[in-house]
Fold this sequence. Notes:
The protein is mostly helical. The N and C termini lie far apart (37 Å). The chain has two domains: 13-146, no CATH class; 166-243, Arc Repressor Mutant, subunit A. Helices cover 62% and strands 0% of the residues. Mean pLDDT is 78; it is low at 149-187. It has eleven helices and no strands.
Amino acid sequence: MARPLKKDLTRPPGIERKIDIALTQDWANLSRRARETNPQSGDFLPSECLVHLIRDALRRGEDRIARLLMPQLLKRAEANLERTVPDSRMRDAETVRQNILSGLMTLFTEDGTEGHEDELDFYECKFLRALRLLRIDHVRKALSARKKLTDLPEGDGGKNEAAFDDEMLARLSRMASVGPSQENRLYLPEVIKALDKLPPDQKRAVVLRRIIGHTEEQTAKICKVDKRTIRYRLAAADKQLKTLKEDL
């Protein structure tokens, strides 16, 4: 049975039923259903269901299910953001979109911790409306930052700069589909912070290729570059991540 939400929220009956059914299904069935993209199909898992299943899997330490479902949810969020925060309407729209996706991932990594017990509840009721509120918040922050933009201080280049060694970079690769264990749940926010330090083109390549799980060809098509450029950006991102310093 689906975990109850905070008192002022109620899932639509149809969503509640779908969650209850999905919770009884094994990994093979969920894997098949996760690949269904037609909303009219009985196998289709609405985004609200995905949110609950991912939260449930993370809280139970079911990494395999979280790794399976998270990329599907992020693909849907990404598709929505491509329409609602298009390059034609906002400068640095790509950076804003990636920050929104990072914010969404952070909600999952913090879910269930003190002060973050029910922040994702609304996403289980009205995913697109909740995503809209997250989007508005990030867009407003971006516009506000642009208005206040002044010369920023240079980094000190010392021990306070972020850093990733080979082991940390390997963990980033293992977590590419966002399926953290209890240990990695604590580490994932640091990964997201590190990604935010990358140049926009490299960050986009990492998110599309390694986190959302697009193929190299799909990533190149979305970025409107060739596959060799995508490989170069990923290699440059790896190099950058290895030079960052982070006390963990």
